UniProtKB/TrEMBL annotation, chain B:
This is ABC transmembrane type-1 domain-containing protein. Residues 85-293, 391-585 form the ABC transmembrane type-1 domain. Pfam families: BPD_transp_1. It comes from marine metagenome. GO terms for biological process: transmembrane transport. It is found in: Cell inner membrane. SUPFAM superfamilies: MetI-like. CDD domains: TM_PBP2. Its main location: membrane. One of its GO terms (cellular component) is plasma membrane.
Amino acid sequence: MEQIKLRGIKKSYGKEMAVQDVDLTVNPGDFLTILGPSGCGKTTLLRAIAGLEEPDEGEIQFGDRIVFSRKQGVIIPPENRNVGFIFQSYALWPHMTVEQNVTLALKEKKLSSAEVESRLKNSLEMVQLETYRKRYPSELSGGQQQRVAVSRLIALQSKILLMDEPLSNLDAKLRTEMRAELKRLHRELEATTVYVTHDQTEALTLSDIVVVMNKGLVMQSGTPYDIYHHPDNIFVAEFIGDPQNNFFKGQIVEKNGQLHLDCQEIVFPMKNRYSSNSRKVIATVRPENINVSFQEQKDWFKVTLKSVQPTGANTILQVKLGTTKITLLQPEFIRMKLGEPLWVSFDPESLNFFDEETGKNLHL
Amino acid sequence: MSKSQLTYFYYKLVNRPHLVLGSVCLLILGFLVLTPLLEIIKDSLSVQSYDIAYLPEADIGEFTLFHYERVFTGPLSKALLINPLLNSIGIGICVTLIGVSIGTILAWLIVRTNIRYKGVFGTLAVVPYMMPSWVLALAWLSLFKNDRIGGAEGIFTYFFGILPPNWISYGFFPIVVCLSLHYYAYGYLLMSGALASVDSELEDAGAICGMNRRQRMLRITIPLLLPALGSAIVLTFIRILGTFGTPALLGLPVRFYTFSTQIYASLNASNNGDAYVLALVLIATAITCIWINGRVLGVRKSFVTLTGKGFRSREIDLGAWRWVATSGVALFLAATVFLPLMILLWESLLIVPGDYHLENFTLEYWIGDGSIDETYGEPGVFQSDNILSSLWNSIKLGLSAAFFNGIIGLLVGYAVVRGRGHLLSKWLEGVAFAPYIFPSIAFGAIYIGMFSTSWGPVPALYGTFTILVLITVVKNLPFTSRTGIAAMLQIDKSIEETARVQGIRWIKRMVRIVIPLSFSGLVSGMLLTFITAMRELSLIILLISPSNMVLTGLLFNYNEQDMSQHAGAVTLLLTVIIITGSILARMVSGGFGLSALKNG
């Protein structure tokens, strides 16, 4: 198990800044996911760790070993970094059999043939492809090709695993299956893993730590729970969660010595003393954290139903409170007619407040 | 610069093998392509030993505009420059028009209509491209030779008793006919590729908009093909400007000079200065053509985009014309492919040239030992050390040029594709294409000037086998680097990167991954070089000597000495070897069992 440490990483392509000043530490044995929209710099960062890109500035360290340092003039080439890497396209060598794909690098390392054979056998067993040794990649299904790429990675026994959207070319069912496999694999290999994806479900299910990136900057780094429930800023609140968070823009007002967030149709009581200069605040609440009642409740907001989307176990409801749109998520299969009334209420504990100008969480 | 910065840049370079490779390629190719050009510019501007007769006061190597004055304004200008230039341009325009038209019509018939025997026709149509370009000229001489230059008269006179007039036997007319019947194959190759990639759905869309067949042709198909047609015209024209064999065989006997034969004559008279000025004019003409083509067609380099998606290419039903077209194409191909070869075979079987009686038939010129008088003491093809050693030289030249070209094309392709976006990549691509604009004969002239004396670390190479290989490799570079680039573009970057992170070194990556994956492209590039090298005359005519004689050069000598039987026999031998070689290469590369690549 090895620690990965990035300090002050910057990388630009021409005028475009792909990564601007990123610090990141991956603890030994952790599964860390870099999550973000396309073009946010996540793949560049991963490739920099592997050595396939050279940052313009900064330092990268594996354990005690410096693998890149602009200041000290160190660039260890990818060949000597000893990391495992899975590409989005799997990058299997099409002219080689499964067996040759797995053993080429082992033979290059001049391992004994007994060792090569045992690693080959072991790694193919782990992905259940023992019987496919002599097949060419084009004779395998997408999922099987993916597993060949994984077994190639296992055979190398690297202490660091890097994965670049490895599941994005698979269909939905296979993706869920492989997700579970990758998680099992990470546990068994005990390797420090960095995983890049734009799929938040993958990020939340797989990771010990999730790093959300946008425009070359780290927006938040934390456990999946923190990222989901306590977003550091508006971007993370917006990006994480499906269906999306509900946003309410409003002004801070004082009434009878008590602070309120006045969003015209809804007024949220503010729990703590508000100490910022800005008067403009955005409140967010997750669709599943809004209380819903189908009967009239005293002091609850009455809303009208605009759309119903059952997904099986859950139902997404779109409702309107005057002109404000609200999304609700109920853990049951709901059959209702559009236009019917509902009653909703908000728990102060499940609300997050953000400064509208800076986008920062006010942690009230 | 501090030490850490130095090591940083060192590492950065080591980390990019394609940059190192690209720089090395650029240096070597720059030396082989650009310095020769500078060298002949310098020589054309300085006094040569030949000029001392005219400029008794001058020192050799002194700066002078003498050559330019002589060629452009002097009293000899008309003979040296104007007439050959007009002849070359006239031939170029006629041959390009006729050749590209025939090629286009043939391509359209074979690709887009329901003509019969497409496969056979398609193969036969490219055979002229494999044959030496002067095969037709030799056959023409056998058919229509008159008494102008002595020796026996041709088949036509033998059977009809009439001497053909000079304009039929020699000069402009036969040169245009013979070159057209050779270069249509080039037009066919370029246009059939373009036609096959025009989606019929585009024409169908026109039909839905209410266009009739003629309108669809004029408004959709032809405009789509214009860029390909434009390059076919320019590329053919440039090749014709530099061609030497046919104008030499059919023009020199009547003192009909084209640019290439004039350069040859000047160099033969050791008048290098004039020859270099003419070569520079030829290069300037070629560059102008490419520039005009680029300006006229502009950025619309190609409308034909390869999406990798399959599309339909619907056949046009020719109806009653189907059989007319089929027999027409069959006759045409028979006349251009089989007839010349049959005539040459016939010619090679005659004891006394010009007598086509059965009693006059012999195998002396194939297997004889040279003891009978009529053979001038030259043994038959399979007995002659001279011919067999030239044959061996030709094969050696073809194979070694193919080998080096394949490797260099691959490396250039690798450096260009991996370095995309880098200035180096652009330069390398440009330098690799540059030999294309040097007309063959001019390129040969440059290399004489360059390598007749030792040049820095490079020893004098004139008269050696090495210089033949060198010039053939460089001249074919535009084609092989194109195939190299195309092959590399098909290999995704991650295929190699995944090997990098697994700790596989660069050399090993090339040997185990990059080369196997580009193997079929490599073979087709090599095959093309092999064919070109075997049948090459224009490029090497100035560079061969008895010590490095190849079959094509020998053939040229036989013809100059009016030994038509030997010339015919040698030509046949050469053609058979080239065609067999290309069939073998196709079988090897096709049967290599890389079926796994199909979906990879």
